[in-house]
Amino acid sequence: MGSILRNEEAPFYLTDVDREVLSQTDDQFHLQTWSDLRQIISENNLESLKRKPSDLIRYIEWTRQTKAAYGTITNFICQNRLHWEPLPVSSATDGPKFECNNAIPFADPNDYKILRNDWPYGFTPDITHLVVWLKTPVPVDQKTGDLTPESRKRVKEFVRETFTAGLARDGHAEDSVQWFKNWTRLQSVRGLEHVHVLVKDVSDDIITEWTGEGRRSS
C-alpha cells in the first residue's frame, strides 16, 4: 500500500482524496448519494468524487497491467470498448484523432458512443454511471482545464435531449440525470474525449437501450 500512495509508483495521478480512500476499508467508506453528487457537481468540486477503497486498489492495478499490455489506457479503450481506429496523424502527445461526420460535438450520433463505466465511483446502488465517448473534442479553458461556457451549454443540451427528456416521458423525476466532465488534471483517461452521465433509479433495460450492452461483470 505504501508504494501505491507514492505518485511515482502509481499509474496515474493520485489526489489527496484518493490517498484518503486508500487509508480506509470498504466498511469505513461512505457511499456517495444522489444528494451528495448534486452538491459536488453544482459546486464543481469534482475532486471529491471517489471510488470504494477495494475498487480503487483494483483500478490502480488494472491500469498498471493495461498500460503494460497496450501502452496506454486510450489504446485499450479504442481497441476493446469503442472499436474506433485512430487516424495515422494521431500522436501520443496530442491523443487520438478520428474521422468524424461532424466536427461539432454531439451533432452526429456516429461520432459518439454511450457506454457503461467499467470503473464507476463509489455511489449508492440506485445510481448508474455512464460515459459518453466522443470522436470530436469538447473545448475547455486552457488555463483551468474546465469547460468553456459554450461547451457547458452544448453538453447540457445533449444530456437533456438524450437522457432527461425520454426519462421524463417515462415518468422519472426531473432530476433523474446529472452529468459532469472532469477537469483535465483529474482525468485518468486523457486525450480521449468523454463526459460522465449519472442516472438514478433507471432500469437496466433502459441502460442497455442507451449503451447497446448488458450489465458488465465486476
How many beta-strand segments?
4
Largest sheet, strands/sense/barrel: 4 strands, antiparallel
Report, as a whole number of angstroms, the end-to-end distance: 22 Å
What structural class do the secondary elements suggest? alpha+beta
**C-alpha-based Rg, rounded:** 17 Å
- Count of alpha/pi helices: 7
Which series of helices and strands comes N to C?
HHHHHEEHEEH
Regions with little confidence, pLDDT below 50 for 5+ residues? none
Shape: globular
Mean pLDDT: 90
* Content of β-strand: 5-15%
Describe the 3D structure.
This protein has helices at residues 2-5, 16-22, 34-42, 53-70, 73-82, 149-169, 204-211, and strands spanning 112-116, 127-134, 177-180, 194-200. The chain is α+β, with helices and mostly antiparallel strands and 218 residues long. It is built from seven helices and four strands, in the order αααααββαββα. Helix content is 35%, strand content 11%.
Outline of this structure?
This protein is of the alpha+beta class and 218 residues long. It is built from seven helices and four strands, in the order αααααββαββα.
